Amino acid sequence: MSVQAPLLQTIEPDDPSSDNSPSKPNAAQGSAANSGMASNPSDAESGTVHVYSNTQGLTCTVQPSPSAHPAVLFCMYFFRVAAVAVYILCGLFTDNYVLSTVMVVVLLAMDFWNCRNVAGRRLVGLRFWNQIDEDGDSFWVFESRDPSRPANAVDSKMFWIAIYAFPVFWLLLFVISIVRFNLSFIPIVILALVFNITNAVGFTYA
Prior knowledge:
This protein has 206 residues and is mainly alpha-helical. The radius of gyration is 27 Å and the shape is globular. It is built from 6 helices and 4 strands; from the N terminus they run H-H-E-E-H-H-E-E-H-H. 55% of the residues lie in helices and 11% in strands. The strands form 2 sheets. The chain has a two-stranded antiparallel ribbon with strand order 1-2. The chain has a two-stranded antiparallel sheet with strand order 3-4. The N terminus is likely disordered.
């Protein structure tokens, strides 16, 4: 074997007929094209629709994935729906006001933390927090993702629906509590409104 000759040329193929066979496209490239896989992380996260041409010259389209972060989206809606459900249905299962209040407040706190620190960052690439400088002045810090990496369309739509819809639900429950003179649960509804409106305003300005 010559040292100057490339190693690939010195190895005889297992099938002699393979030398005369036409070259085949790379399997990885073919499978990636046929499956419509994203070529870069930004396309995978944004759910961009890819268009490609097959060997017959037909043009096919690959639909975007439903959600880039289904687990994060599920947790966001779970905490929010659970807080509303426990508030409405707690009277059917227990008469303990303290237990009902604690359960709703814990769910609201978990939702507020998850939405501000996890869901907003993963679903739409936004985050905000309040910071105090050395002089004791408080100010808000807003952080956004690189515009070259757009958010997944489904994740973004479902996120903003939750951000703006649930404050309306809690506002409706606040009105119902006043009309029914259920004054004991009004502080819970006010706390829910504070948490939800804070997230809505923060992410809107972010």
